[in-house]
Amino acid sequence: MQINQNKLKQRLILLSFIASIVLTSLKFFAYYITSSNAILSDALESIINVIASGFAFYSIYLSSQPKDRNHPYGHGKVEFFSAGFEGALIIIASLFISIEAVKRLMDPTPIQNLAQGSGFILFTILVNTAIGYKLLSEGKRVNSLALVADGRHLMSDSISSVMLILSVGLIMLTGYAWIDSVSSLFFGVFLAFNGFQLVSKSVAGLMDASDENLLEKVVQTLRDHKKPEWIDVHNLRAQQYGSDLHIDCHLTLPYYWELQKVHETIHNFENILKDSHSGETEIFVHADPCLYQCCYFCRIDNCPVRQHAFIQDIEWTAASLVKNEKLYNEARIHIQE
Fold first, then answer.
1. What is d(CA 336, CA 6) in angstroms, rounded to the nearest whole number?
2. Which residue, 69, 124, 141, 253, has fewest beta-carbon neighbours within 10 Å?
3. In contact, 183 and 167? CB cutoff 8 Å
4. How far is 314 from 319, CA to CA, in rounded Å?
């Protein structure tokens, strides 16, 4: 499953790379026959697509490599770096485009053959939208930030090209050539915003910021498969690097159990989490002995050391399970209520 996912990611990003080269060539040809600043801006931004797709392809290849002595947690974090690199390139391109747009506003040049140039741009919109949508959907499915970033880049490229077509249409209707540079300036601002979003997400990933959606998915899996002997889970942490998922937590079990039974229970606990994720999953579980306060929410039948009757379950939520403390504090609050 993991090998197939990596091959799929590599094929998709390779498709994006090849398409970027072809479409960039078409856009520069469209600029050649029109001398449109807006079309030039779109073509220059497409160069970023080529560079970014090439780097994304390498990052996906590297993230698929198994962990080694120098990288004990694997190579998946390179996808965060790839997304940040792509975002930075987009911001640089937006600055260049904005500066060029201001220059053209101050010193306008004639525009020609807009209808023919728009035909080429319309074709690139269709191709970019199709490939970008595929990258976005597959990237979200396999949780690949590199695929998502490249897909989002292509979709933003399509949106900007639509804006370009609209501006060309306005120029043809009104004859106002300055619309070309103004639309290019707006395009630059739009690109800067998208680039900033990618860089922010990249930095968050490199800094191991919590992924609330991922954490909620892990907690939901635990809720759906909760066993009576899983008395308590706390200090839960989950991080995903590429397709690799890393989870560690503390699991409270009956203090009188033998080591073999503890081992088997933890093994089953890990397998349930692994089965919920299609990629490679690495789990570290620290076994904690139960305390008498746990009796209030412990569902083990015929417990030989029970000191209090069961009162009620404590709802497992992401907010409570990430705390580095047993849930008997939560139980005390519920009992008092």
1. 51
2. 69
3. yes
4. 12
